[in-house]
Amino acid sequence: MVPDSRIGKQIGEGYTSEVFLWPDKKIIKLFRSGLPKELCIGEFEATRKIHECIGVCPKPFELIEVDGKTGIVYERITGESMLRRIMRKLWTYASAGRKLARLQLSFQKEVDFPLISVSAALKRNINYISEITAEEKAYLNQYIDSLPDGNCLCHFDFHPGNVLVQDDKYIVIDWMTASKGNPLADAARTSVLLRFAETTMKPAILNLIITKIRMAIHNEYMKEYISAANVRKEDIEAWELPIMAARLLEWIPPNEKAKLLKMVQTKIHEANILVNLA
After folding, report:
1. What is the three-class DSSP state of 197?
2. What is the rounded distance in angstroms from the CA atom of residue 48 to the CA atom of residue 60?
3. HEC letters along 15-81
4. Which residues have CB under 8 Å from 130's CB, separation 6+?
5. Of 17, 55, 21, 47, nearest in space to 171 by CA
6. Which of 8, 36, 113, 239 sits 20 to 30 Å CA-CA off 209?
């Protein structure tokens, strides 16, 4: 197969996609082989509506097939990620954490266009996980049903790496996991990502530095979100168990997966003991 001549220099990559320059001041996000096409279509449709209604994301132009892969052509944002900016200016971690919370709250609005619900997305992912038992899945599904619902836009992969900074404007990217529901679930997902997401950079000391910075950002983020939204920390934490479980389905480092699996199984075990004692 002859490579598509429109594809330019690679400028980014993640677990599910690679990003390249595209003609006319655009970029193309090419999804990796093996990723279900419905997820790609879902991101395109969600981003199109979010851009139209809220305007916090890059404008998507088209969903196309290129070199045997599904891609989305987006407007090009000439800036850097919030994560990269923090790494260049380590002393800005506190203000970055607070900005992250305020930015998330700015798009957590009620939506009237089709999106999968947070609860349905969590249940779907949990039911595909091979590392936990049918009994554990049943418990998690019942637990999700006990949590308060909502109709607000949730990004569900919101972290500094998915925020681009162009001058003083902040643009949120990667809406593949967009859903609607209780905004505290979205905050809980961000909290879990900031606390447990692992990097595999070398040398090892760099991973340690990034982990410490990530935890410092998390602390500032949580304080700001709780204060600005006028919510309780416990109500955010109530969503963490199913979110940790659902993350086991994702392409994450083995150490992170092992850590999350142990926490999920421990929490379920402790909850069942309490039920039996009641």
Report:
1. coil
2. 6
3. CCEEEEEECCCEEEEEECCCCCHHHHHHHHHHHHHHHHHCCCCCCEEEEEEECCEEEEEEECCCCEE
4. none
5. 55
6. 239
Q: Please give the backbone phi and psi of residue 150, each rounded to the nearest 5 degrees, phi first.
A: -170, -175
Among 148, 157, 160, 144, residue whose Cα is nearest residue 192: 157
| 65-81 confidence digits (pLDDT tens) | 998 899 999 999 988 99
Question: How far is the C-alpha of 31 from the C-alpha of 149, rounded, in Å?
Answer: 31
Task: Give pLDDT tens digits for 239-260.
Answer: 999 999 999 999 888 999 999 9
DSSP assignment of 171-188, as one string?
EE---TT-EEE-HHHHHH
Q: Which tokens go with 24?
A: 């006319």
Sign, CA torsion 96/100/102/106: positive
Confidence (pTM): 0.92
Please state, in angstroms and rounded to a whole number, the distance separating the CA atoms of residues 252 and 151.
Answer: 29
Q: Which of 101, 111, 12, 28 is nearest to 70 (CA)?
A: 28
CA angle 157–162–48, rounded 5-degree value: 80
